[in-house]
Design a protein that fits this description.
Length: 121
Amino acid sequence: MSLFDDKLSLLLNHRLTWLSARSNLMAVNIAHADIKGTTRKEIKPFAKVLKSHNALPNKNGTHAKILKIGTADTIKTKTEISRELEMLEMSRNALEHDAILSTVKNFHQLVRTILSMAQGG
């Protein structure tokens, strides 16, 4: 097992994959916002996607290491597309994505610092 091959890293990676798929779907919604009667599509909630892909980390290691989100993970709603709502959701999505990346970056910096101190540097 490598240093970053733990359940937390796996979940963070899966969350980033889910957020990326969600952003892509919101971009498609925005592109179709001018078509009258077109309804929103959403990605299923994160926990449901993890369960459906057997991607929840477990003790025996039988969980999926890579999360591949596809059309089966989308939901077609009955709500018409609102460009403003999609933009707000995209902003919220981007904030969460940036927060996770910042957390990972800080963790890696901490590991580098500890390794540097262990080598006497």
